């Protein structure tokens, strides 16, 4: 075997590689250089969002979360939810009143709001927006539920809107519909087909104006300096899309983005140790829980699925409630970043949240659970698993979201806890929890919902009326729950216009759910977020609710509107080291070239030597 | 040619039924956590054509296909059509995959020739070992390591490269060229690292096959230098399998970059396919499936057509 090698092709290849390498390094270094330290550079706040979907920028048809949040920045709503405690506060309407029968609501539209093209915002725009949703099927897709109870909407003068209702409603200060400029939208043709993309800047009157959108990449907004509530602190607000949570955390550490959310406990704790990064533990907005199959039935009485009949017995459900240790979930599953609670409405909504009195608490007490089951006649079989008086074995099929590690851990705890009281649990992780709910073929089913400031909808999904009309029909129920007392209270709160009276009813409803045990709440996971304090002035971001709340995904624009550039930072969202990077890049390039050059010389020598063999 | 067409037709049929089996209700996924009335749910179902029986949906789908219409995406309702979406996102993917494939092919071939020619040597063992190790590394993990080390920076390593995306949002015009190039570096390195071993191994064994050939002995006997024997005689013959591989790769990797596009948030077809699967966004998933398959079929066809030009033996 010959050991002869050639120099020429090798050196050519290496040379090409070296040039490519050098080019790459220079290229990397180049873009950052001109951006550094330009005094009149606009201040920019960049938010890293993970795995968002932007279905459309059209507020009449968009139903996904990120675009819905962006619409809050682009357009005013009639009323808003305060940053303080998410109770109704002024938006485009500066004041409102309702008739004694609660059927006519009159809103006064502020006169200091203009659209970004200079046109004033009037009552006509409000009436146009609502009427479009009511009249036009194509405009109804996203927001029909908000206007379903409207009889008519009229602009009685330039600054007054009158809404007549079919029946009184408690939710008239919770109409989450962006008000669009009539002079633009009356000309768009078929609203369902209109994307609202491309024609930038998009005319709106919110605190920010959308100036660019790149699908699956980013959304850019510019501050509306004339916004009636005051100009936002940053000149630009950018939402950058990432696919991976770990990658976005690195982007924050690097300074590519300035705010991130949906952190895991591990990520949050690691980021807490970093300089220039502030971690925010926002009080939970979402409940984590499970439902017990109450013997699922359609509205026509036909049974759905095959839930274990033992769960229809309130005593069994009560025993299971006593077997659940919420504190263990808080500490051992969520590492303390969780608020253990059995109530349906999270504590962030102080007026609506209910806490059981001491004698009402159904706490962790396996002995009591065993006593209840013994007394109710569920004797333990030979293998320790109980059997109902009519011979049904207490084996429960539990389904849990396969993609949620915390839920799966809770599911494991459930197996252990119920094992202690003689109930066998078999867990199946699933990607299609909704499909399992459809079939009714489950006993325990994990669930979770984000709760909005107006609780009407979240309560509605536990009423008898939202169950399917017959098996296989469409439905909204989250549990097949059907409780007469609960339904009676639900109807009351729905039309109760007085906030205090409504809060009282709402609390009673939670008590009913808590004691009934079909819907079991574990508590509320905290919202883990972080931002760079060398870009955003620490503490300038308003939280919702004040002091304890979250930054991203607020019901409103408070955090983005209030954020101020950090003094001394470059506020550009890019790191200060760009010049350093450039120098470093060139340096590395030169070194690489020298190395490769030296190598080539060496190679040539060997090659010649070999050739002479 | 006819075979390719029949394959494509089969793909179109399979594409429809394959994804109907996916778990999950698109309407539920889309309206998750949102206040929607029963009427809205039903209207949405009707709008998406999901209220129709399956055979009806299939006929509609075939009808659309006959006119080369891939339908409209469920979730990207701002976009005109599935075909438009694919056209919009094929550029970024081709840029990423194309760059990576060219580099992998060149690097893999070069190393393959060297290692094959000197098989059994230390450099052969080291090179093959490295390539195989990188080949076995999970793509996602490697990508993440790249980001942690070279994007965020660790210790003395500077944070030169971007952590994700294809460009910075405020960059426009000619400044895009260096900006995109910078964003391209880490994903390309990741992709190359995982892929080049294929080329290396195929070329290496192909060179090994040629080594004992009589024509090489003849060439040497003519007194040619060893390097010339390798370059002029052995390599051109050994390269043949690489042609097929590049063709298959170019077609196949388009779909196969899902992981790299995901970890680097690269806004291409892989990212969009992943996004579409979650809903599931049936028209988009089907459309992309057909597109990916068509790419593979087309590239294979191309390889079949090019091969006889390169290798006279298959012309018969």
Overall description:
The complex is a heterodimer of chains A (613) and B (316). By secondary structure, chain A is of the alpha+beta class. Chain A contains 17 helices and 21 strands. Chain A is 32% helix and 19% strand. In chain A, helix 1 (8-32) runs antiparallel to helix 17, helix 8 packs antiparallel against helix 10 and helix 14 (484-495) runs antiparallel to helix 15. The longest helix of chain A is centred in the C-terminal third of the chain and has 34 residues, at 578-611. The radius of gyration of chain A is 30 Å and the shape is globular. Chain A starts with 7 loop residues before the first helix and ends with a helix. Residues 1-23, 25-38, 570-587 and 604-613 of chain A have low confidence and may be disordered. Chain B contains 14 helices and no strands. Chain B is globular. Classes of the chains: A alpha+beta (613), B mainly alpha (316). The interface between A and B is large, with 86 and 74 residues.
List keywords for this structure.
heterodimer; A: 613 residues; alpha+beta; 7-stranded mixed sheet; 6-stranded mixed sheet; 17 helices; 21 strands; globular; disordered N terminus; disordered C terminus; B: 316 residues; mainly alpha; MetI-like fold; 2 domains; 73% helix; 0% strand
Low-confidence stretches of chain A: 1-23, 25-38, 570-587, 604-613
Radius of gyration of chain B: 24 Å
Helix count from the secondary structure assignment of chain A: 17
Computed CA radius of gyration of chain A, to the nearest angstrom: 30 Å
- Note the quaternary state here: heterodimer
* Molecular shape of chain B: globular
CATH evolutionary superfamily of the largest domain in chain B: MetI-like
What proportion strand of chain A?
15-25%
Q: For the terminal residues of chain A, how far apart are their CA atoms?
A: 13 Å
- Let me know the average pLDDT of chain B: 86
What series of H and E elements makes up the topology of chain B?
Answer: HHHHHHHHHHHHHH
Instruction: Summarize the biggest pleated sheet of chain A.
Output: 7 strands, mixed
Q: Outline of chain A, from the CA principal axes? A: globular
Task: Look at the helices and sheets of chain B and give the structural class.
Answer: mainly alpha
Could you give the order of strands across the largest sheet of chain A?
8-9-10-1-11-21-12
Alpha-carbon distance between the two ends of chain B: 18 Å
Strand element count of chain B: 0
Largest two-chain interface: A-B, 86 and 74 residues
H/I helix tally of chain B: 14
CATH topology of the largest domain in chain B: MetI-like fold
Strand content of chain B: under 5%
């Amino acid at each position: 075997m010959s050991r002869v090698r050639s120099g020429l092709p090798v050196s050519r290849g290496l040379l090409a590689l070296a040039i490519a390498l050098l080019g790459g390094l220079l290229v990397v270094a180049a873009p950052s250089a001109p951006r550094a330290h330009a005094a009149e550079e606009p201040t920019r706040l960049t938010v890293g969002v993970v795995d968002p979907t932007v279905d459309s920028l059209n507020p009449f048809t968009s139903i996904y979360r990120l675009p819905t949040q962006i619409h809050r920045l682009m357009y005013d709503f009639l009323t808003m939810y305060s940053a303080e405690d998410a109770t109704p506060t002024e938006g485009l309407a500066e004041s409102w009143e309702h008739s004694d029968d609660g059927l006519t609501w009159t809103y006064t539209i502020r006169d200091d709001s203009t659209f970004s093209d200079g046109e004033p915002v009037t009552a006509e725009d409000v009436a146009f927006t609502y009427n479009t949703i009511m009249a036009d099927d194509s405009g109804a897709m996203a927001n029909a539920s908000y206007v379903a109870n409207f009889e008519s909407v009229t602009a009685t003068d330039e600054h007054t809107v009158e809404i007549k209702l079919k029946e009184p409603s408690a939710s008239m200060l919770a109409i989450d519909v962006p008000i669009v400029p009539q002079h633009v939208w009356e000309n768009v043709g078929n609203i369902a087909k209109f994307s609202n993309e491309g024609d930038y800047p998009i005319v709106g009157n919110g605190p920010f104006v959308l100036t660019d959108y790149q699908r699956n990449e980013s959304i850019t907004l510019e501050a509306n300096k004339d916004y009636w509530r005051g100009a936002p602190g940053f000149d630009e607000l950018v939402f950058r899309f990432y696919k991976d949570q770990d990658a976005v955390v690195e982007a924050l550490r690097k300074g590519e983005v300035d705010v991130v959310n949906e952190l895991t406990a591990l990520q949050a704790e690691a980021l807490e140790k970093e300089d220039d990064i502030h971690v925010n533990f926002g009080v939970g907005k979402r409940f984590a829980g499970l439902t017990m199959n109450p013997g699922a039935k359609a509205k026509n009485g036909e049974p759905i699925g095959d839930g274990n009949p033992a769960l229809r017995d309130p005593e069994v459900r009560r025993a299971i409630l006593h077997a659940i240790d919420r504190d263990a979930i808080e500490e051992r599953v969520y590492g303390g970043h969780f608020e253990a609670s059995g109530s349906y409405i999270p504590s962030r909504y102080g007026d609506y949240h209910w806490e059981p009195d001491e004698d009402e608490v159904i706490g962790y007490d396996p002995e009591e659970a065993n006593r209840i089951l013994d007394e109710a006649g569920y004797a333990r079989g030979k293998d320790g698993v109980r059997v109902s008086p009519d011979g049904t074995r207490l084996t429960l099929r539990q389904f849990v979201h396969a993609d949620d590690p915390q839920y799966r851990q809770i599911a494991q705890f459930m197996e252990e806890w119920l094992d202690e009281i003689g109930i066998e649990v078999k867990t199946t992780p699933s990607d299609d929890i909704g499909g399992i709910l459809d079939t009714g073929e489950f006993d325990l089913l994990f669930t979770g919902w984000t709760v909005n400031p107006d609780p009407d909808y979240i309560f509605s999904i536990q009423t008898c009326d939202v169950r399917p009309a017959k098996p296989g029909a469409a439905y909204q129920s989250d549990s097949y729950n059907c409780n007469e007392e609960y339904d009676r209270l639900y109807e009351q709160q729905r039309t109760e216009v007085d906030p205090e009276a409504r809060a009282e009813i709402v609390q009673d409803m939670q008590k009913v759910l808590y004691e009934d045990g079909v819907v079991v709440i574990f508590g509320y996971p905290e919202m883990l977020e972080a931002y760079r304090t060398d870009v955003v002035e620490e503490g300038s971001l308003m939280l919702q609710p004040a002091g304890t709340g979250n930054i991203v995904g607020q019901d409103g624009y408070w955090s983005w509107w209030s954020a101020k550039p950090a003094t001394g930072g470059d506020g550009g969202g890019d790191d200060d080291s760009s010049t350093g990077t450039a120098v470093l890049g060139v340096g590395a390039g030169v070194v690489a070239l020298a190395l490769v050059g030296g190598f080539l010389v060496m190679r040539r020598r060997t090659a010649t030597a070999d050739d002479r063999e | 040619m006819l075979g390719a067409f029949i394959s494509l037709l089969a793909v179109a049929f399979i594409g429809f039924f394959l994804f109907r089996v996916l778990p999950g209700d698109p309407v539920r996924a889309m309206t998750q956590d949102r206040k929607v009335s029963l009427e809205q749910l039903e209207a949405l179902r009707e709008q998406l054509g999901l209220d129709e029986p399956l055979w009806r949906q299939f006929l509609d789908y075939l009808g659309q296909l006959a006119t080369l219409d891939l339908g409209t995406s469920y979730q990207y309702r701002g976009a005109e059509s599935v075909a438009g979406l694919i056209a919009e996102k094929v550029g970024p993917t081709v840029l990423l995959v194309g760059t990576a494939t060219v580099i992998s092919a060149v690097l893999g071939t070069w190393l393959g020739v060297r290692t094959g020619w000197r098989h059994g040597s230390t450099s052969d063992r080291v090179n093959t070992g490295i390539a195989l190790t990188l080949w076995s590394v999970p793509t996602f993990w490697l990508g993440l390591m790249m980001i942690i080390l070279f994007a965020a920076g660790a210790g003395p390593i500077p944070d030169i490269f971007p952590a994700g995306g294809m460009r910075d949002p405020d960059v426009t015009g000619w400044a895009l060229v260096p900006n995109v190039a910078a964003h391209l570096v880490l994903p390309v390195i990741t992709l190359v690292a995982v892929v080049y071993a294929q080329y290396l191994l195929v070329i290496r064994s192909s060179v090994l096959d040629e080594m004992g050939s009589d024509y090489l002995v003849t060439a040497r006997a003519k007194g040619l230098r060893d390097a010339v024997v390798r370059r002029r005689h052995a390599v051109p013959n050994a390269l043949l399998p690489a042609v097929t591989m590049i063709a298959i790769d170019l077609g196949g990797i388009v779909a196969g970059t899902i992981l790299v596009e995901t970890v680097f948030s690269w806004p291409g077809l892989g990212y969009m396919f992943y996004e579409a699967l979650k809903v599931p966004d049936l028209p988009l998933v089907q459309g992309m499936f057909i597109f990916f398959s068509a790419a593979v079929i087309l590239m294979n066809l191309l390889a079949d057509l090019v091969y006889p030009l390169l290798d006279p033996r298959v012309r018969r």
